[in-house]
Design a protein that fits this description.
Blueprint lengths: L9 E4 L3 H4 L10 E6 L3 H4 L2 H11 L3 E5 L8 H13 L4 E6 L1 H15 L19 E5 L13 E4 L4 E4 L8 E4 L9 H19 L6 H15 L2 H6 L4 H21 L3 H13 L3 H6 L2 H7 L3 H10 L5 H12 L8 H12 L14 H13 L6
Parallel strand pairs: 1-8, 2-3, 2-4, 4-5, 5-8
Antiparallel strand pairs: 6-7
């Protein structure tokens, strides 16, 4: 292991980590609400490891397995209703970023029973009941971040809940990702890549986070051949998981930046998976970035000889050939981000409306393989 990690979440990383640390459930609570998606947690071994650990500590549990991708506030409300009914005193999220984020939001609603999907954004400094996170994708880093990204159908947007909800413990075992298919592996790996890069090219970047970003990128890069060839070893999977968790620690300190702010519109309006939604904008984003020294560092750490070569790899990994938007859509999405300066604040350079529009336009309207 080649990194130090200081986040409020107690991280247990490694093979069989749940089994090896099941006594850690002794003190966290008595009745768990397990929050997950419909299928994968049952198939990849994560749920069964958790149930064995809970049984060994004599804990009660109930399962809410209705979390969809990009979880909606409606689903979160339904999960919290069950949690309140069974008097859950801790929540375990198992899955990709969607169940982990839903678990965080549900923990908040259980602890604040009057909260509704209408009032949740207007209240500040809320606390939830303890959350345990078990990631089964190597991408979001949600297991160590304070964010919960939800789909708000009233506002027609994907957005962060705006509360600070760090999981109390995270059990991270890359074995759970071994059956993740190649498209999903790439989509999620690109999310981790975008967290590392946006944490690095960031107004809040410090010497400490820069070191962390460079190390995370190096570890991520060790799996790059496997990602490109579509054949990943156990070690590749472990490297992706490690870099994803490190990337989570980086964005928990620095936040993400423009591609995330711009990508949410593509996920909400076009159904583009989260990692792809960010990274399909990356080539124009990196090209428009004025501090070439940092961009060149990224290219060098990944072992490419030019930005152009990195761009070719990004195109292969994001596979956006069938993604298109119109000029009107590009304008509408640019208006959305331009009018929400919060989404621009982490970008360390001046950027104009036209430059933002051009990122959408050149990536998705006028890229040659689209429309
Ligand atoms: P996801 O939406 O959680 O899951 C996508 C799909 O992958 C689901 O169909 C899921 O199936 C399946 N899946 C999950 N683990 C699997 C496994 N081990 N094997 C096979 N299939 C598996 O995907 P995600 O990319 O991890 O999460 C995206 C969400 O996280 C977005 O909402 C994004 O905005 C958010 N996010 C949050 C943060 C944060 O810091 N909080 C950071 C980045 C992104 P099941 O439904 O059956 O489980
Ligand atoms: Zn992300």
């Amino acid at each position: 292991m080649r990194f130090n990690l200081k986040v409020p979440t107690q991280v247990f990383f490694g093979e069989n980590t749940i089994k090896n640390n099941c006594d850690k459930f002794n003190k966290i609570g008595n009745r768990a609400l397990i929050v997950m998606g419909g299928k994968s947690a049952k198939l990849n071994g994560a749920l069964s490891d958790i149930l064995i650990a809970l049984d060994s500590c004599d804990k009660e549990y109930y399962i809410f397995d209705k979390v969809e991708e990009n979880p909606s506030l409606e689903t979160i409300e339904a999960g919290s209703k069950l949690g309140k009914a069974i008097k859950a005193d801790f929540v375990i999220g198992i899955g990709g970023g969607s169940p982990l984020d839903a678990a965080k939001a549900i923990s908040l609603m259980i602890n604040n029973p009057k909260l509704t999907k209408e009032s949740i954004f207007s209240q500040k400094n809320l606390e939830g009941i303890p959350v345990v996170a078990v990631p089964t994708t190597a991408g979001t880093g949600s297991e160590v971040t304070q964010y919960a990204i939800v789909t708000d159908h009233i506002g027609k947007v994907k957005r962060n809940l705006g509360q600070t909800i760090y999981p109390k413990m995270a059990f991270i075992d890359s074995r759970y990702t071994e059956k993740l298919n190649i498209p999903m592996t790439r989509n999620t790996a690109m999310d981790a890549f975008s967290h590392i890069v946006e944490g690095y090219l960031n107004r809040n970047a410090t010497e400490y986070t820069d070191k962390l970003s460079q190390e995370a990128l190096k570890i991520w890069g060790e799996a790059l051949d496997g990602l490109l060839n579509g054949a990943l070893t156990k070690e590749d999977r472990n490297n992706l998981m490690m870099s994803s968790t490190l990337a989570g620690a980086i964005i928990s300190k620095n936040g993400t930046s423009i591609p995330h702010g711009m990508g949410y519109a593509l996920t909400y309006h076009k159904g583009v998976p989260h990692g792809v939604a960010n990274c399909c904008l990356y080539n124009e984003y990196l090209n428009s970035f004025k501090n070439k020294k940092k961009v060149n560092n990224i290219v060098n750490i990944l072992g490419f000889s030019s930005l152009n070569d990195l761009e070719k790899a990004i195109i292969k990994l994001t596979q956006t050939n069938n993604l298109s938007i119109t000029e009107e859509e590009a304008k509408k999405y640019t208006d959305e981000i331009w009018n929400n300066k919060e989404k621009l604040k982490n970008h360390p350079e001046d950027i104009s409306y036209d430059e933002l529009y051009n990122i959408y336009y050149k990536s998705l309207v006028n890229s040659g393989n689209i429309q």
